[in-house]
Write a structure and sequence with these properties.
The complex is a heterodimer of chains A (about 220) and B (about 220). Chain A has about 220 residues and is an all-alpha fold. Chain A starts with 7 loop residues before the first helix and ends in a 6-residue tail after the last helix. In chain A, helix 3 crosses helix 5, helix 4 crosses helix 5 and helix 5 crosses helix 7. Chain A is about 80% helix and about 0% strand. Chain A has one domain: Orthogonal Bundle (MetI-like fold), CATH 1.10.3720.10. Chain B has a single domain, classed as MetI-like fold (Orthogonal Bundle). Chain B contains eight helices and no strands. In chain B, helix 1 packs antiparallel against helix 2, helix 1 packs across helix 4 and helix 3 crosses helix 4. The chains are: A mainly alpha (about 220), B mainly alpha (about 220). Chains A and B meet through helix 3, helix 4, helix 7 and helix 9 of A and helix 2, helix 3, helix 6, helix 7 and helix 8 of B.
Protein backbone atom coordinates (compact mmCIF):
# COMPACT_ATOMS: atom_id res chain seq x y z
CA UNK A 1 0.00 0.00 0.00
CA UNK A 2 1.53 3.27 -1.06
CA UNK A 3 -1.34 5.54 -0.27
CA UNK A 4 -0.58 8.72 1.64
CA UNK A 5 -3.33 9.94 3.89
CA UNK A 6 -4.15 13.59 3.64
CA UNK A 7 -6.32 14.76 6.47
CA UNK A 8 -5.24 18.39 6.00
CA UNK A 9 -8.07 19.22 3.59
CA UNK A 10 -10.59 17.53 5.85
CA UNK A 11 -9.23 19.34 8.89
CA UNK A 12 -9.57 22.65 7.06
CA UNK A 13 -13.21 21.86 6.40
CA UNK A 14 -14.00 21.49 10.12
CA UNK A 15 -16.65 24.25 10.15
CA UNK A 16 -18.58 22.34 7.47
CA UNK A 17 -18.33 19.09 9.43
CA UNK A 18 -19.39 20.76 12.64
CA UNK A 19 -22.34 22.38 10.89
CA UNK A 20 -23.25 19.07 9.29
CA UNK A 21 -23.13 17.39 12.69
CA UNK A 22 -25.43 20.01 14.16
CA UNK A 23 -27.83 19.65 11.23
CA UNK A 24 -27.86 15.86 11.65
CA UNK A 25 -28.63 16.30 15.34
CA UNK A 26 -31.38 18.81 14.62
CA UNK A 27 -32.91 16.66 11.87
CA UNK A 28 -32.80 13.55 14.07
CA UNK A 29 -34.22 15.30 17.13
CA UNK A 30 -37.01 16.93 15.15
CA UNK A 31 -37.89 13.67 13.37
CA UNK A 32 -37.86 11.80 16.66
CA UNK A 33 -40.10 14.36 18.33
CA UNK A 34 -42.60 14.38 15.46
CA UNK A 35 -42.65 10.60 15.15
CA UNK A 36 -43.24 10.35 18.89
CA UNK A 37 -46.30 12.56 18.55
CA UNK A 38 -47.54 10.47 15.62
CA UNK A 39 -46.73 7.33 17.60
CA UNK A 40 -48.82 8.27 20.64
CA UNK A 41 -51.89 8.78 18.46
CA UNK A 42 -51.01 5.83 16.25
CA UNK A 43 -50.56 3.49 19.19
CA UNK A 44 -53.83 4.64 20.77
CA UNK A 45 -55.63 4.09 17.47
CA UNK A 46 -53.91 0.72 17.10
CA UNK A 47 -54.90 -0.50 20.56
CA UNK A 48 -58.25 1.11 21.27
CA UNK A 49 -59.52 2.70 18.05
CA UNK A 50 -62.41 1.43 15.94
CA UNK A 51 -61.64 -1.68 13.96
CA UNK A 52 -61.01 -0.07 10.51
CA UNK A 53 -58.64 2.46 12.09
CA UNK A 54 -56.79 -0.32 13.88
CA UNK A 55 -56.39 -2.19 10.60
CA UNK A 56 -55.22 0.98 8.87
CA UNK A 57 -52.50 1.66 11.42
CA UNK A 58 -51.43 -1.98 11.36
CA UNK A 59 -51.17 -1.88 7.56
CA UNK A 60 -49.16 1.34 7.71
CA UNK A 61 -46.70 -0.17 10.19
CA UNK A 62 -46.28 -3.32 8.12
CA UNK A 63 -45.83 -1.42 4.84
CA UNK A 64 -43.18 0.90 6.24
CA UNK A 65 -41.30 -1.79 8.12
CA UNK A 66 -41.11 -4.13 5.14
CA UNK A 67 -39.82 -1.67 2.55
CA UNK A 68 -36.44 0.10 2.41
CA UNK A 69 -36.11 3.65 3.73
CA UNK A 70 -34.33 4.70 0.52
CA UNK A 71 -37.35 3.72 -1.60
CA UNK A 72 -39.63 5.61 0.79
CA UNK A 73 -37.44 8.70 0.33
CA UNK A 74 -37.69 8.42 -3.45
CA UNK A 75 -41.47 7.95 -3.29
CA UNK A 76 -41.83 11.08 -1.20
CA UNK A 77 -39.22 13.29 -2.79
CA UNK A 78 -39.94 12.43 -6.43
CA UNK A 79 -43.54 11.30 -6.04
CA UNK A 80 -45.14 14.15 -4.12
CA UNK A 81 -44.11 16.89 -6.61
CA UNK A 82 -45.91 15.02 -9.40
CA UNK A 83 -49.19 15.54 -7.53
CA UNK A 84 -48.40 19.21 -7.05
CA UNK A 85 -46.68 19.10 -3.66
CA UNK A 86 -43.33 20.79 -4.25
CA UNK A 87 -40.87 20.20 -1.47
CA UNK A 88 -37.24 21.07 -0.94
CA UNK A 89 -34.78 18.35 0.01
CA UNK A 90 -34.77 19.16 3.71
CA UNK A 91 -38.56 19.02 4.03
CA UNK A 92 -38.63 15.81 2.01
CA UNK A 93 -35.98 14.31 4.29
CA UNK A 94 -37.91 15.30 7.40
CA UNK A 95 -41.18 13.86 6.10
CA UNK A 96 -39.48 10.62 5.09
CA UNK A 97 -37.75 10.26 8.45
CA UNK A 98 -40.96 10.96 10.37
CA UNK A 99 -43.07 8.58 8.26
CA UNK A 100 -40.44 5.87 8.58
CA UNK A 101 -39.65 6.46 12.25
CA UNK A 102 -43.33 6.54 13.25
CA UNK A 103 -43.86 2.95 12.17
CA UNK A 104 -41.19 1.85 14.62
CA UNK A 105 -42.16 4.19 17.46
CA UNK A 106 -45.84 3.18 17.16
CA UNK A 107 -44.83 -0.40 17.91
CA UNK A 108 -42.69 0.70 20.85
CA UNK A 109 -45.44 2.84 22.38
CA UNK A 110 -48.02 0.13 21.74
CA UNK A 111 -45.85 -2.41 23.57
CA UNK A 112 -45.65 0.08 26.44
CA UNK A 113 -49.41 0.48 26.62
CA UNK A 114 -50.06 -3.24 26.31
CA UNK A 115 -47.53 -4.05 29.03
CA UNK A 116 -49.92 -2.60 31.64
CA UNK A 117 -52.58 -5.16 32.57
CA UNK A 118 -56.05 -3.70 32.17
CA UNK A 119 -56.88 -4.78 35.69
CA UNK A 120 -54.66 -1.97 36.97
CA UNK A 121 -56.77 0.65 35.26
CA UNK A 122 -59.92 -0.98 36.59
CA UNK A 123 -58.43 -1.09 40.07
CA UNK A 124 -57.47 2.59 39.84
CA UNK A 125 -61.00 3.46 38.75
CA UNK A 126 -62.44 1.38 41.58
CA UNK A 127 -60.29 3.38 44.00
CA UNK A 128 -61.98 6.52 42.69
CA UNK A 129 -59.35 7.84 40.28
CA UNK A 130 -60.55 9.63 37.16
CA UNK A 131 -59.61 8.22 33.77
CA UNK A 132 -56.96 10.89 33.35
CA UNK A 133 -55.63 10.36 36.86
CA UNK A 134 -55.50 6.62 36.31
CA UNK A 135 -53.53 7.19 33.14
CA UNK A 136 -51.17 9.75 34.68
CA UNK A 137 -50.58 8.06 38.03
CA UNK A 138 -50.87 4.38 37.20
CA UNK A 139 -50.37 3.64 33.53
CA UNK A 140 -47.85 6.30 32.47
CA UNK A 141 -45.12 5.74 35.10
CA UNK A 142 -45.08 2.02 34.36
CA UNK A 143 -45.38 2.40 30.59
CA UNK A 144 -42.46 4.86 30.51
CA UNK A 145 -40.25 2.27 32.16
CA UNK A 146 -40.98 -0.08 29.26
CA UNK A 147 -40.90 2.57 26.54
CA UNK A 148 -37.91 4.76 27.32
CA UNK A 149 -35.07 2.26 26.71
CA UNK A 150 -36.23 1.19 23.22
CA UNK A 151 -36.99 4.81 22.34
CA UNK A 152 -33.37 5.63 23.15
CA UNK A 153 -32.14 2.93 20.78
CA UNK A 154 -34.68 4.06 18.21
CA UNK A 155 -33.29 7.60 18.35
CA UNK A 156 -29.77 6.33 17.67
CA UNK A 157 -31.03 4.15 14.80
CA UNK A 158 -32.90 7.11 13.37
CA UNK A 159 -29.78 9.28 13.57
CA UNK A 160 -27.69 6.67 11.75
CA UNK A 161 -30.48 6.15 9.23
CA UNK A 162 -30.66 9.88 8.57
CA UNK A 163 -27.36 9.61 6.66
CA UNK A 164 -29.40 8.12 3.80
CA UNK A 165 -31.20 11.43 3.15
CA UNK A 166 -27.90 12.70 1.73
CA UNK A 167 -28.99 11.03 -1.55
CA UNK A 168 -31.55 13.77 -2.11
CA UNK A 169 -28.88 16.26 -0.96
CA UNK A 170 -30.63 17.27 2.22
CA UNK A 171 -28.26 19.16 4.51
CA UNK A 172 -26.66 16.92 7.10
CA UNK A 173 -23.36 15.30 8.02
CA UNK A 174 -23.06 12.72 5.23
CA UNK A 175 -23.92 15.35 2.62
CA UNK A 176 -21.25 17.60 4.15
CA UNK A 177 -18.71 14.79 3.82
CA UNK A 178 -19.82 14.29 0.21
CA UNK A 179 -19.29 17.97 -0.54
CA UNK A 180 -15.84 17.85 0.99
CA UNK A 181 -14.84 14.77 -0.95
CA UNK A 182 -16.08 16.15 -4.26
CA UNK A 183 -14.01 19.27 -3.67
CA UNK A 184 -10.83 17.66 -2.31
CA UNK A 185 -10.99 14.17 -3.93
CA UNK A 186 -10.15 12.78 -0.50
CA UNK A 187 -13.11 10.42 -0.32
CA UNK A 188 -11.78 7.94 2.21
CA UNK A 189 -10.55 10.59 4.60
CA UNK A 190 -13.78 12.59 4.40
CA UNK A 191 -15.97 9.54 5.02
CA UNK A 192 -13.85 8.08 7.80
CA UNK A 193 -14.01 11.37 9.68
CA UNK A 194 -17.79 11.53 9.19
CA UNK A 195 -18.08 7.89 10.32
CA UNK A 196 -16.04 8.68 13.43
CA UNK A 197 -18.36 11.58 14.23
CA UNK A 198 -21.44 9.35 13.90
CA UNK A 199 -19.74 6.78 16.11
CA UNK A 200 -18.95 9.41 18.71
CA UNK A 201 -22.55 10.56 18.66
CA UNK A 202 -23.97 7.07 19.09
CA UNK A 203 -21.61 6.32 21.97
CA UNK A 204 -22.49 9.64 23.56
CA UNK A 205 -26.23 9.05 23.28
CA UNK A 206 -25.95 5.44 24.44
CA UNK A 207 -24.18 6.65 27.58
CA UNK A 208 -26.58 9.57 28.03
CA UNK A 209 -29.71 7.39 27.74
CA UNK A 210 -28.23 4.86 30.16
CA UNK A 211 -27.70 7.60 32.77
CA UNK A 212 -31.16 9.03 32.18
CA UNK A 213 -32.65 5.58 32.74
CA UNK A 214 -30.56 5.14 35.87
CA UNK A 215 -31.63 8.52 37.22
CA UNK A 216 -35.30 8.14 36.34
CA UNK A 217 -35.83 4.49 37.19
CA UNK A 218 -33.12 3.86 39.73
CA UNK A 219 -31.37 1.28 37.60
CA UNK A 220 -30.60 0.89 33.91
CA UNK A 221 -33.54 -0.95 32.43
CA UNK A 222 -31.82 -1.95 29.21
CA UNK A 223 -28.79 -4.23 28.88
CA UNK B 1 -38.16 11.24 -21.85
CA UNK B 2 -40.00 8.14 -23.04
CA UNK B 3 -43.22 6.55 -21.89
CA UNK B 4 -43.39 3.70 -19.43
CA UNK B 5 -44.17 0.38 -21.07
CA UNK B 6 -45.17 -2.97 -19.62
CA UNK B 7 -41.75 -4.48 -20.35
CA UNK B 8 -40.25 -1.99 -17.91
CA UNK B 9 -41.90 -3.83 -15.05
CA UNK B 10 -40.15 -6.95 -16.29
CA UNK B 11 -36.93 -4.97 -16.02
CA UNK B 12 -37.71 -4.25 -12.37
CA UNK B 13 -38.50 -7.90 -11.68
CA UNK B 14 -35.23 -8.95 -13.28
CA UNK B 15 -33.37 -6.40 -11.18
CA UNK B 16 -35.01 -7.88 -8.09
CA UNK B 17 -32.92 -10.99 -8.80
CA UNK B 18 -29.85 -8.98 -7.89
CA UNK B 19 -31.45 -7.84 -4.68
CA UNK B 20 -32.00 -11.49 -3.78
CA UNK B 21 -28.50 -12.55 -4.86
CA UNK B 22 -26.94 -9.67 -2.93
CA UNK B 23 -29.02 -10.48 0.17
CA UNK B 24 -28.05 -14.14 -0.01
CA UNK B 25 -24.36 -13.38 -0.53
CA UNK B 26 -24.30 -10.89 2.34
CA UNK B 27 -26.18 -13.32 4.57
CA UNK B 28 -23.66 -16.03 3.82
CA UNK B 29 -20.64 -13.76 4.33
CA UNK B 30 -22.16 -12.12 7.38
CA UNK B 31 -23.18 -15.50 8.75
CA UNK B 32 -19.66 -16.98 8.61
CA UNK B 33 -18.06 -13.90 10.14
CA UNK B 34 -20.96 -13.43 12.53
CA UNK B 35 -20.54 -16.93 13.95
CA UNK B 36 -16.86 -16.24 14.59
CA UNK B 37 -17.79 -12.98 16.30
CA UNK B 38 -20.45 -14.66 18.42
CA UNK B 39 -17.94 -17.33 19.49
CA UNK B 40 -15.30 -14.67 20.21
CA UNK B 41 -17.88 -12.71 22.19
CA UNK B 42 -18.50 -15.64 24.57
CA UNK B 43 -14.89 -16.84 24.58
CA UNK B 44 -12.82 -17.38 27.75
CA UNK B 45 -10.10 -15.10 26.40
CA UNK B 46 -10.67 -11.51 27.41
CA UNK B 47 -8.87 -10.02 24.38
CA UNK B 48 -11.14 -11.95 21.99
CA UNK B 49 -14.26 -10.81 23.84
CA UNK B 50 -13.15 -7.19 23.70
CA UNK B 51 -12.31 -7.46 20.04
CA UNK B 52 -15.79 -8.81 19.31
CA UNK B 53 -17.46 -6.13 21.45
CA UNK B 54 -15.46 -3.42 19.67
CA UNK B 55 -16.40 -4.80 16.27
CA UNK B 56 -20.08 -4.93 17.15
CA UNK B 57 -20.06 -1.41 18.67
CA UNK B 58 -18.37 0.12 15.62
CA UNK B 59 -20.59 -1.54 13.02
CA UNK B 60 -23.80 -0.98 14.98
CA UNK B 61 -22.83 2.56 15.90
CA UNK B 62 -22.11 3.95 12.44
CA UNK B 63 -24.35 4.37 9.39
CA UNK B 64 -24.35 1.46 6.94
CA UNK B 65 -24.19 3.93 4.06
CA UNK B 66 -20.83 5.24 5.29
CA UNK B 67 -19.58 1.70 5.84
CA UNK B 68 -20.35 1.01 2.19
CA UNK B 69 -18.59 4.21 1.12
CA UNK B 70 -15.52 3.30 3.17
CA UNK B 71 -15.30 -0.18 1.65
CA UNK B 72 -15.86 1.23 -1.84
CA UNK B 73 -13.29 4.03 -1.56
CA UNK B 74 -11.03 2.02 0.75
CA UNK B 75 -10.46 -0.46 -2.07
CA UNK B 76 -9.45 2.37 -4.39
CA UNK B 77 -7.16 3.68 -1.71
CA UNK B 78 -5.38 0.36 -1.30
CA UNK B 79 -4.96 0.18 -5.06
CA UNK B 80 -7.52 -2.64 -5.41
CA UNK B 81 -10.62 -1.04 -6.93
CA UNK B 82 -13.41 -3.32 -5.76
CA UNK B 83 -16.26 -2.07 -7.90
CA UNK B 84 -19.86 -1.76 -6.77
CA UNK B 85 -20.68 -5.49 -6.64
CA UNK B 86 -17.77 -6.65 -4.43
CA UNK B 87 -17.98 -3.50 -2.31
CA UNK B 88 -21.67 -4.09 -1.70
CA UNK B 89 -21.24 -7.77 -0.77
CA UNK B 90 -18.24 -7.01 1.45
CA UNK B 91 -19.78 -3.97 3.13
CA UNK B 92 -23.13 -5.64 3.77
CA UNK B 93 -21.39 -8.81 5.04
CA UNK B 94 -19.23 -6.87 7.49
CA UNK B 95 -22.32 -5.05 8.73
CA UNK B 96 -24.50 -8.18 8.93
CA UNK B 97 -21.75 -9.97 10.87
CA UNK B 98 -22.06 -7.45 13.70
CA UNK B 99 -25.83 -7.90 13.98
CA UNK B 100 -25.83 -11.68 13.52
CA UNK B 101 -22.91 -11.95 15.94
CA UNK B 102 -24.91 -10.13 18.60
CA UNK B 103 -28.07 -12.16 17.93
CA UNK B 104 -26.19 -15.44 18.08
CA UNK B 105 -24.25 -14.43 21.18
CA UNK B 106 -27.60 -14.06 22.92
CA UNK B 107 -28.72 -17.45 21.64
CA UNK B 108 -25.51 -19.12 22.78
CA UNK B 109 -25.80 -17.54 26.20
CA UNK B 110 -29.39 -18.75 26.49
CA UNK B 111 -28.02 -22.30 26.79
CA UNK B 112 -27.83 -22.88 30.53
CA UNK B 113 -24.39 -23.12 32.11
CA UNK B 114 -25.28 -26.52 33.58
CA UNK B 115 -25.34 -27.96 30.06
CA UNK B 116 -21.81 -26.75 29.43
CA UNK B 117 -20.58 -27.96 32.81
CA UNK B 118 -22.14 -31.36 32.20
CA UNK B 119 -20.52 -31.59 28.76
CA UNK B 120 -17.15 -30.63 30.26
CA UNK B 121 -17.61 -33.20 33.02
CA UNK B 122 -18.19 -35.79 30.32
CA UNK B 123 -14.81 -34.83 28.88
CA UNK B 124 -15.93 -32.90 25.79
CA UNK B 125 -13.45 -30.46 24.32
CA UNK B 126 -14.32 -27.06 22.89
CA UNK B 127 -15.28 -28.17 19.40
CA UNK B 128 -17.54 -31.12 20.26
CA UNK B 129 -18.95 -29.13 23.16
CA UNK B 130 -19.96 -26.31 20.82
CA UNK B 131 -21.04 -28.46 17.89
CA UNK B 132 -22.93 -31.15 19.79
CA UNK B 133 -24.22 -29.43 22.90
CA UNK B 134 -24.35 -25.64 22.71
CA UNK B 135 -25.01 -24.72 19.08
CA UNK B 136 -27.89 -27.17 18.44
CA UNK B 137 -29.74 -25.77 21.44
CA UNK B 138 -28.82 -22.18 20.57
CA UNK B 139 -30.13 -22.71 17.06
CA UNK B 140 -33.68 -23.11 18.34
CA UNK B 141 -33.54 -19.69 19.97
CA UNK B 142 -31.62 -18.09 17.12
CA UNK B 143 -33.89 -18.87 14.17
CA UNK B 144 -36.69 -16.36 14.81
CA UNK B 145 -34.46 -13.28 15.34
CA UNK B 146 -32.19 -14.37 12.49
CA UNK B 147 -35.13 -14.50 10.08
CA UNK B 148 -36.23 -11.12 11.45
CA UNK B 149 -32.79 -9.74 10.71
CA UNK B 150 -32.98 -11.04 7.14
CA UNK B 151 -35.77 -8.52 6.57
CA UNK B 152 -33.37 -5.76 7.57
CA UNK B 153 -30.70 -7.21 5.34
CA UNK B 154 -32.95 -7.29 2.27
CA UNK B 155 -33.91 -3.67 2.93
CA UNK B 156 -30.27 -2.72 3.49
CA UNK B 157 -29.28 -3.99 0.06
CA UNK B 158 -31.12 -0.99 -1.38
CA UNK B 159 -28.21 1.18 -0.20
CA UNK B 160 -25.98 -0.62 -2.70
CA UNK B 161 -27.83 1.49 -5.27
CA UNK B 162 -26.00 4.55 -3.95
CA UNK B 163 -22.58 3.09 -4.74
CA UNK B 164 -23.89 2.25 -8.21
CA UNK B 165 -24.80 -1.42 -8.00
CA UNK B 166 -27.84 -2.05 -10.19
CA UNK B 167 -30.26 -3.91 -7.98
CA UNK B 168 -33.97 -3.24 -7.54
CA UNK B 169 -33.76 0.32 -6.19
CA UNK B 170 -31.12 1.45 -8.68
CA UNK B 171 -33.17 -0.10 -11.51
CA UNK B 172 -36.14 1.93 -10.29
CA UNK B 173 -34.00 5.08 -10.30
CA UNK B 174 -32.77 4.42 -13.83
CA UNK B 175 -36.29 3.76 -15.05
CA UNK B 176 -37.58 6.87 -13.31
CA UNK B 177 -34.87 9.01 -14.89
CA UNK B 178 -35.99 7.82 -18.31
CA UNK B 179 -39.76 7.93 -17.89
CA UNK B 180 -40.42 10.09 -14.85
CA UNK B 181 -43.34 8.19 -13.34
CA UNK B 182 -42.06 8.16 -9.75
CA UNK B 183 -45.24 6.98 -7.99
CA UNK B 184 -45.79 4.07 -10.30
CA UNK B 185 -42.15 3.03 -10.47
CA UNK B 186 -41.13 3.41 -6.83
CA UNK B 187 -44.53 2.09 -5.80
CA UNK B 188 -43.80 -1.07 -7.76
CA UNK B 189 -40.28 -1.22 -6.35
CA UNK B 190 -41.65 -0.88 -2.82
CA UNK B 191 -44.23 -3.58 -3.57
CA UNK B 192 -41.53 -6.01 -4.73
CA UNK B 193 -39.53 -5.37 -1.56
CA UNK B 194 -42.69 -5.91 0.46
CA UNK B 195 -43.34 -9.22 -1.25
CA UNK B 196 -39.77 -10.28 -0.43
CA UNK B 197 -39.77 -9.06 3.17
CA UNK B 198 -43.26 -9.61 4.51
CA UNK B 199 -43.24 -13.42 4.46
CA UNK B 200 -39.99 -13.31 6.44
CA UNK B 201 -41.53 -10.89 8.95
CA UNK B 202 -44.58 -13.10 9.38
CA UNK B 203 -42.49 -16.26 9.69
CA UNK B 204 -40.21 -14.66 12.25
CA UNK B 205 -43.13 -13.40 14.31
CA UNK B 206 -44.83 -16.78 14.22
CA UNK B 207 -41.68 -18.59 15.32
CA UNK B 208 -41.13 -16.08 18.08
CA UNK B 209 -44.63 -16.69 19.38
CA UNK B 210 -44.17 -20.45 19.25
CA UNK B 211 -40.86 -20.18 21.09
CA UNK B 212 -42.42 -17.92 23.70
CA UNK B 213 -45.10 -20.55 24.29
CA UNK B 214 -42.49 -23.29 24.52
CA UNK B 215 -40.51 -21.41 27.14
CA UNK B 216 -43.49 -20.26 29.15
CA UNK B 217 -43.67 -21.69 32.63
Amino acid sequence: MNYVFHFGDIWNAWPELLWGTLLTLRLSALSMLLSLIVAVFGALARTSGPRPLRALVAAYVELIRNTPFLVQIFLIFFGLPTVGLRLDANTGALIALVLNGSAYTIEIVRAGIESIPHGQVEAARALGLHTLQAFRLVVLPQALRVVVPPLGSQFILLMLNSSVVSVISADELTAAAQDIQSRTFRAFEAYIVATAIYFGLSMLFTAAFASIERLAFGRPVSR
Amino acid sequence: MRTLILADFGFLLLAARWTIVLSAAAFFGGGVLGLLIALARVSQTRALRWLAIGYIRVFQGTPLLLQLFLVFFGGDMLGVPLGPWISAVLGLSLNAAAFLGEIWRGSIQSVTIGQIEAARALGLHYLPLMLRVVLPQALRVAIAPTVGFMVNLVKSTSLAAIIGFVELTRAGQLLNNATFRPFLIFGTVALIYFVLCWPLTVASRRMERRLATAYRR
